[in-house]
Design a protein that fits this description.
- With 597 residues, the protein is mostly helical.
- Helices cover 72% and strands 0% of the residues.
- 42% of the residues are buried.
- The N terminus is likely disordered.
Length: 597
């Protein structure tokens, strides 16, 4: 026997098919409206269009009620051109017609045209209702998802434009007396937060007389994104006022605590609350909980929470791998990625980027090539960020031939791609090749950035290419409008110091347009140690210690310089000073890969 619910579904499908395919026509508008609503909900465009064709031929062709349902079906199915065409040919239109079309454009990320329609609706003198205003307010929050905008256009301009439209739409809300409508106010608050107007959203929230859970969730999400320090206090207030948190509320507070790195204090309290409220089995809440522990550095708690999750998705696995990597456990990250593949979860571009970064950190060419194979399988599901991670992996594994081969297959290398190649060659002893890549980059009219020049100057430093280094350093501001920063000066000091031009390096530091930082002075100190210039080395050490007396690097290099000159008294005094100031040398570490038995 059929279960009643199963029989009901079969009956509905059969009835729909007969009504569409047969010549039978009824005057029952509600029956057709029910079918069109179902086709809109399931995005069954083909059945909806077939029913539309049948109704055109029947006596109900001029029914505004049915025409609005047909229009809504086209809009919700994503066939916006058909929806707009039908709208233009409607003999009659009302607020429902306009609202259905505007909502369709908003739902399918066409907010700019939705707002044009809203303006046209005002000009046509049609009465605007709450449903129209919800769609218009929502459209104003989608400036960064507009399919009609050019991705290269200024984001600040679009944000400003959509905010101005948001205030205009809200003026209608006030004028029509809909401020009591909590649904409208929630959408308005969300739009303000997406427009980075958190303070204004908080004012709206405080003035809202009938807040619901969605109101609290909207503000919680905004605080987590823009002002995470306020999240704990807001959560306590929410609990004190008797608001029952749902899964969105828990995800919001956990995101805020993750940003604060508070996984052992309030984080554990929230963990207990969500279990008590019965949200522990929801995958979105579980992901937020795992993320909070990992970003707080509590790797063991993160793994324990991961293992207790009843359901996991690709985001869960990605978080675990990235979390292990950020906690300094790249080997463990690779284990999670391999386990993910065994369980049959399909990898995405974020998984692959994490896998490649892990292989780069481990300098494991074998595992890196396996990840490269997975990138090939994903084909077009990856972007330039994954390919950049692939370049970086090969560079850090010392395989620049493979990196160059990947780089040659990239359709549109970004500035990061070019910079990664320059740094890769520089780090692998091919400084001239690094400069060749830089020349090719400029020949392709790809503008170098701040980081690119650090990599080029590093190449010049490593290769002893002093003339090329000065030329590059001078061109930064003259040709590219980039003011040299401390990193660039450190590279120049290193380049001159390696060549034994200590006095020239010291003069360069003295001419810097801003105060030299610890890194610059430590670089000079290192060069003084190599070339035995104790006098300048003492000056550099004094300056470095005055800026940071707790950095062990300065003490170690200075001690080695004393030892090189057999100044054992100086070495002893320096070690006593380190003990007095409780400065401890950071131990070095390196990776080795053991052969498998």
């Amino acid at each position: 026997m059929f279960r009643s619910i199963g029989f009901s579904k079969i009956w509905r499908k059969t009835t729909s098919f007969r009504l569409i395919s047969s010549d039978f026509i009824t005057n029952d508008e509600e029956l057709y409206a029910t079918l069109l609503r179902r086709f809109a909900e399931t995005k069954n465009f083909h059945h909806g269009r077939a029913l539309h064709a049948k109704l055109v031929k029947g006596p109900l062709n001029g029914s505004l009620f049915l025409n609005n349902h047909i229009l809504n079906m086209y809009a919700k199915s994503g066939h916006l051109l058909d929806a707009h065409k039908m709208f233009e040919h409607l003999p009659q239109r009302n607020a429902v017609s306009w609202s259905a079309l505007i909502a369709g454009f908003v739902q399918h990320n066409r907010p700019s045209y939705a707002l044009v329609l809203f303006s046209n609706m005002q000009a046509a003198g049609v009465n605007i209702n709450e449903f129209t205003l919800v769609s218009a307010l929502h459209a104003c929050s989608l400036y960064d998802n507009d399919n009609d905008s050019d991705g290269d256009n200024n984001e600040e301009y679009y944000c400003s434009y959509y905010l101005s439209r948001l205030y205009q739409v809200y003026a209608f809300v006030v004028r029509l007396g809909f401020e009591w409508n909590v649904f409208l106010m929630n959408v308005f608050m969300t739009a303000l937060i997406r427009g980075r107007k958190l303070a204004e959203a908080l004012k709206v929230f405080e003035g809202c007389r009938n807040k619901d859970t969605v109101s609290w969730n909207a503000v919680m999400a905004g605080l987590a994104q823009f002002c995470c320090g306020e999240v704990p206090g807001f959560w306590r207030r929410m609990c004190c006022e008797g608001v029952k948190p749902d899964s969105f509320a828990f995800s919001g507070v956990l995101a805020g605590l993750a940003a604060l790195g508070d996984g052992t204090g309030m984080g554990m309290q929230v963990h207990g609350q969500l279990v008590k409220c019965g949200h522990g089995d929801e995958v979105c809440v579980g992901n937020s909980l795992v993320d909070m522990y990992l970003k707080s550095g509590s790797l063991e708690e993160g793994i324990r929470t991961f293992e207790e999750m009843a359901e996991r998705n690709v985001c869960t696995w990605n978080q675990m791998a990235a979390g292990c990597l950020n906690c300094g456990k790249p080997g463990k990250a690779l284990e999670f990625i391999n386990e993910m593949r065994k369980t049959g979860v399909r990898m995405n571009k974020f998984t692959l980027a994490t896998a490649l970064t892990t292989c780069a950190n481990l300098a494991s060419l074998e595992e890196g090539k396996k990840a490269h194979g997975l990138r090939i399988k994903l084909e077009n599901d990856v972007d330039v960020c994954v390919d950049n991670a692939l370049l970086d992996m090969y560079a850090k594994c010392g395989s620049m031939d493979d990196a160059l081969q990947v780089f040659g297959t990239m359709e549109a290398p970004s500035v990061v791609s070019w910079t990664t190649m320059i740094m890769g060659f520089a780090q692998n002893g091919q400084e001239r090749k690094a400069l060749e890549i830089f020349d090719e980059m400029r020949a392709e009219d790809k503008a170098p950035n701040y980081i690119t020049f650090i990599c080029v100057l590093y190449a010049c430093s490593q290769g002893g290419l002093i003339d090329e280094g000065w030329e590059c350093f001078s061109s930064m501001e003259q040709d590219h409008g980039i003011s040299p920063g401390e990193d660039h000066y450190a590279c120049m000091v290193d380049m001159l110091g390696r060549a034994g031009r200590i006095k020239e390096a010291y003069e360069l530091i003295r001419r810097m347009p801003f105060q030299a930082g610890v890194m610059v002075w430590q670089t000079l100190l290192g060069a003084c140690r190599v070339h035995g210039d104790v006098e300048t080395g003492l000056i550099a050490a004094k300056q470095a210690l005055s800026l940071d007396k707790d950095d062990s690097s300065t003490y170690v290099v200075l001690s080695n310089m004393f030892a090189d000159g057999r100044d054992w008294k100086g070495v002893g005094s320096l070690r006593e000073l380190m003990e007095t100031r409780d400065v401890k040398k950071t131990p070095g570490s390196s990776w080795i890969q053991l052969s498998r038995m």
